[in-house]
Amino acid sequence: MTRHLVLVRHVKSDWGSAGQRDHDRPLNVRGRAAAKALGRWLQARGAIPDEVLCSSARRTQETCALLGLAIAPTLLKSLYLAEAHEMLAVLQGATGKAVLLLAHNPGIAELAEEIVSAPPEHERFSDYPTGATLLARFDITDWRDLRPGTGQIEDFVIPRDLT
């Protein structure tokens, strides 16, 4: 059996006003447009998750909402600014066959590099800019069996590729 992963970094956020907590930063106009474009791209690719694991930060929640998915996310404070090994642990606890994990850099970039067998031929993969989205396939029957270096890349895109 196969498991599919959609690994998304939140889109562009607004740096807000003085004194605003990082956790509470909203998306900016460019980010909202990018999230909608990514949602259309996911739909066109048939990359529809049956489980969504999302950081509790406002910008990740807004990104998730604008993707236009028909599934409510599981909001996890543990994904807020998590390191790659923490994200991997969350993913290993997933139950869906197709999981979307939405979080932050630098952890998400490190996780992306760690879980695939070879990086895609895209100049922005290593820095995983805002809105970067990886589609990967794993030949496992349970997420608990997920190991580094085993993901096969199906696609990788950044919002600039879509506009």
From TrEMBL:
This protein's name: Phosphohistidine phosphatase
Pfam families according to UniProt: His_Phos_1
PANTHER family for the chain: OS09G0287300 PROTEIN
Organism: Roseovarius lutimaris
Superkingdom to which the source organism belongs: Bacteria
Transmembrane segment boundaries: none
